[in-house]
Specification:
Blueprint: H1 2-6, E1 9-10, E2 18-21, E3 31-38, H2 47-55, E4 60-68, H3 73-77, E5 83-91, E6 98-105, E7 111-116, E8 129-136, E9 143-150, H4 157-172, E10 178-183, H5 189-201, E11 205-206, E12 223-228, E13 230-237, E14 249-255
Parallel strand pairs: 3-4, 9-10
Antiparallel strand pairs: 1-5, 2-5, 3-14, 4-6, 5-6, 7-8, 8-9, 10-12, 11-12, 13-14
């Protein structure tokens, strides 16, 4: 009874993804403008204005610490330009707010899947998420696989690596272009090494950028953006935004010509 009243109510692999908004385009490309951001549950007062500004010209948006059944809902449910796909981890019993990862795109996903981490985080007993969405490309027979991940925290490297095993498996079944982004909680060398091994093994390249380390994140970079089968035209960490404890990252990709 006490757990039901005070502890997060966890979702399971049997729960459905939440699909909101409406995409207007039939295919992505040849340019794909991307935003990656851990939005800190959209709880800071300046978040709404910042978010509307940041997504105005984006084709693809990857959010971690996303919420639904929350005051920010209309931004997603009433979207006439982007389809939003949200995978949920848990519900706050006090606010009834649901937490997870959310991917938005100007094209409707042709396939959507999510994976709960094999292990729970201590104390809260919640799981982290990997969300995969597949999108058609304009004038191209291939499809773009997008992977949006929030990696498990506060556990040993072995449990961390087991969640990365889910990522490795999802990457292995796709032969075409890929965008992988998220908060990977790579706050120590062992975690970062495990993550880089998976990314390099799938033939991914990191979108390297200039950015400032944050003491709250142990002076390590937790958010990463990787890609394959695309050309990176630009990438930037927007550290001047203060509506989250993570800086939003914007990137522009161009599809490589298929020969």
């Amino acid at each position: 009874m006490l757990r039901n009243r005070f502890m997060p109510q966890c979702f399971s692999a049997d729960d459905e993804l939440q699909v909101m908004g409406c995409a207007q385009q039939s295919g992505l490309g040849p340019v794909v403008r991307c935003l990656l951001w851990n939005i800190l549950k959209a709880k800071r007062s300046s978040w709404q204005d910042d978010f509307v500004e940041l997504i105005a010209d984006r084709d693809l948006v990857l959010l971690q610490e996303a919420v639904c059944n929350a005051p920010s809902d209309p931004t997603f449910t009433q979207s006439a330009r982007l389809e939003w796909v949200m995978a949920r981890s848990f519900k706050d019993p006090r606010t009834q707010c649901e937490h997870g990862v959310n991917t938005g795109c100007v094209v409707k996903a042709v396939e959507r899947r999510f994976y709960l981490s094999p292990h729970h985080e201590p104390v809260s007993l919640t799981q982290k998420l990997l969300l995969t969405t597949l999108y058609p490309l304009r004038n191209c027979s291939e499809q773009l696989l997008v992977l949006n991940m929030h990696a498990i925290n506060f556990v040993g490297v072995k449990k961390y690596a087991e969640q990365l095993g889910q990522l490795e498996a999802a990457l292995s079944v796709h032969q075409g272009p890929i965008i992988l982004g998220g908060d990977f909680n790579t706050w120590n060398p062992a975690r970062l090494a495990h993550f880089q091994r998976v990314a390099v093994g799938a033939g991914l390249h990191e979108a390297d950028m200039q950015r400032r380390s944050r003491l709250s994140q142990m002076n390590q970079h937790l958010d990463h953006l990787f890609y394959r089968g695309l050309t990176l035209r630009s990438v930037e960490s927007l550290g001047h935004y203060q509506s989250s404890d993570h800086a939003p990252i914007t990137a522009t990709f161009e599809l490589e010509k298929i020969t």
